[in-house]
Automatic annotation (TrEMBL):
One annotated GO biological process: inorganic cation transmembrane transport
Membrane topology: Multi-pass membrane protein
Keywords of this entry: ATP-binding, Cell membrane, Membrane, Metal-binding, Nucleotide-binding, Translocase, Transmembrane, Transmembrane helix
Protein name: ATPase, E1-E2 type
GO cellular component terms, A-Z: plasma membrane
Source organism per UniProt: Agrobacterium albertimagni AOL15
Amino acid sequence: MTDRTEDLKPHALPPQDVLHAMDTNVSGLGTEEAKRRLEVHGANRLPAAPKRSPVVRFLSQFHNVLIYVLLASAAVTGFMQHWIDTGVILAVVFGNAVVGYLQEGRAEDAMNSIRVMLAPHAAVLRDGRRTSVDAADLVPGDIVLVEAGDRVPADLRLLEARSLKVEEAALTGESVPVDKTQDAVSADAVLGDRSSMLFSGTLVAAGTGKGVVVATGMATEIGKISGMLEAVESLSTPLVRQMDVFARWLTLFILIISGMLLAYGLVVGHLPFDELFMTIVGLAVAAIPEGLPAVMTITLAVGVQAMAGRNAIVRRLPAIETLGSVSVICTDKTGTLTRNEMVVASLVAARHVYAVDGEGYAPEGAVRWNDADVDPQDHAVLSEFARAAGLCNDAVLHSANGAWRVEGDPMEGALMALAGKITGGGSDPFTAGWRRIDAIPFDAAHRYMAVLHVDDENKRHVHVKGAPEAVLELCATQRMPDGSSAQLDAPYWENMVEVLAAEGQRVLAVAVGAPPSGGAHLVQADLPGTLTLIGLVGLIDPPRPEAIVAVADCYQAGIRVKMITGDHAATARAIAGMIGLKNTDRVLTGADLDRMDDATLSLAAAETDIFARTSPAHKLRLVTALQSQGLTVAMTGDGVNDAPALKRADAGIAMGVKGSEAAKEAAELVLADDNFASIAAAVREGRTVYDNIKKVISWTLPTNAGEAATIIIALFAGLALPVTAVQILWVNLVTAITLGLALAFEPSEEGTMRRPPRRRDEPLLTADLIWNVLLVSVLFAAAVFGIFLYALDKGYPIELARTMAMNTLVVMEIFNVFFIRNIYGTSLTWQAVRGTKVVWICVISVTAAQFAVTYLPFMQSLFGTQSVPLQDGLLIVGIGAVFFALVEIEKQMRLAFRNRG
Ligand code: ATP
């Protein structure tokens, strides 16, 4: 069919001819037929960008300054025929590369599986019913529905278009949205002029449309041009880059120091070159934190997976870091703080207030007045409510196994259910022959939806539903119980809106009329003052219980929560109260915001927690205002117009279920379940990842610095090295990729969500961290030297003294892991000692490796070690324990001092 479409020039044909050519009709394909076509045409997707080959990926592990220095050292030692050293250096480099390669693969897989979770969906008609399918399953001939915010899933020939505007930058480079209609254009029109077509990959900026798929996958226009998905995002964040730069400077620093020491040893110490050089190599190897970059990447990958497990899908890796420092979360109300499972609870007419029973979307339930069931026959206005609710509606209700589901907007689903309750289940007999001929889709800017129908007598009817203020403006009259119209009693309606909203109900107004111009089109400007108000509809949308808990968590974590909603001020305030937001006395509306200049807004935004009747443009102003107060802002959004605010926010968060593609693409994070609780969970994970990166660094740096210090001291003191270069390499090999890695998998610390947020500009190497690095380095060097001198003093051979020094180093590293696991609290709890499975696996492996290198004859000859007697072994463990006690006491004192201050 692809070739046929090529010749077909669907943009130039009338819709009917295209349907015929594609062998389909307006009610869509059958499921079986779609399946058959999918086999013929293949999935509707572009091939992924080619992955880097495993060889290239493996080799790229060596592309790192730290590794270059190590490789150069290996070359020199080889040249000097110190084969063991060469072998061990190469083993370190190789071991690191293998671990880096495997973990990077895992990280890439994690990112890829997230891509799958974000796969776009499309609304299609199959078997005459609207359903949602994976965009990859679309086939030529499918009838697809699009609305503002959608990414067009395939090339479509439009059958219907209402106020449709599409941004085609992806295809034509033209960034101004272009108008689309169903009218055929000339056969030789260029892509940018084919206004009867929607092209795959372009973005619907406004309006709604319906079209037939004429090309999928590689046959689409975008497929012909690029033929590829965007490349996989690189696994890098500002923090990783900051560390990369740090590593480079560190390497340079180490090289300079090494050169100076070499000169000093030769000129001042008159040491033999051979021995001196090996010492300097040992120093370089000791000081270089070669495992750090890999472990940091792994920490991030573990974070991405942990967040995905909590329904927060990271689209851009740096978001992980930003999330940890978020100090204010601006959230939508509907669906995020509430369940977005709506039920109509009340109807307000000119003289009556009705209560509506029923649960979920089932079109069953009584309508009551004064606590007694009413017969809709006796209350004509109820049929009018039903008609407006049913006609001014794009949702479809499905029932499967007795459970009712909504396809489309939940609020419209609730209105469909209401219509069913009034008309007695089935479709309204009164509107049976009616056809919709035009519509003004809902838009957050005008806040209502209008439809134009023609009935079986060829009479035209307008129905409108929307926010009461917006609809009241369109009405001059109101419907009375006897079916007549009277002049609109605006104060009565405004008062009733407040009454319903104060109970937390979402209020809609519905109205009816004849088209002012009598024509076949609805024109927005013609509507004001022409309609008759039927009444108000109050809907309940209960708060999510988990959001209440999450809001409390955020407050504890020093994060402010602000609700920014399009809903009415009183409804917003009532829901805010139920959710547990502080500061519910003050509500600012979009109109209030419009009256403020930027400086006033900046103060008001910080002080207010509820913003009602806002439009997406207000969100953008609010983000900017809050940022100007030095806050790190997370902002949620779902509509196409929310994209600028999401981009501007420090962490833009889109809704995975009800969010538009445009919002998802602008966001850093997508919530798989639209739930506020997932934002709080993501912040917690963000903080954990940042902590873990810090832990990895504060574990690695003192180890390297301590080792380096030992060598420098020995050199200056003219002493034999307490630990030889190969032994240092061994220690780095076995510990960096076990103990260091264990920290990447650390769970959140107990008080993670009881701390205030980190400042956005807080440096990674804080004063505390630098102090800890210094302290631990000194303790390491002192202990290693101490035990070495003690052993020599006891008359032990130097090999044994070195073996003991090396083991002391490793034992202290193990204790240091337990210390660092709790940088914000005490390490002296049973839980801290019990550790995690990962930590113990690492500790046990390292211990086993140390036993091997100490006691196995073959290893002894390789590394120049000797068996350590039992009591000395115990002494070494004792030194580790003393070290742990010292650093822990120092930390406790520091924390206590700070808390008091
Ligand atoms: P939030 O911003 O928290 O998600 P919201 O869903 O109420 O809140 P909007 O979608 O901007 O925000 O809706 C604003 C108002 O417009 C609603 O309170 C309602 O009165 C009206 N409205 C919403 N959806 C529709 C619709 N499909 N048809 C008609 N009116 C609507």
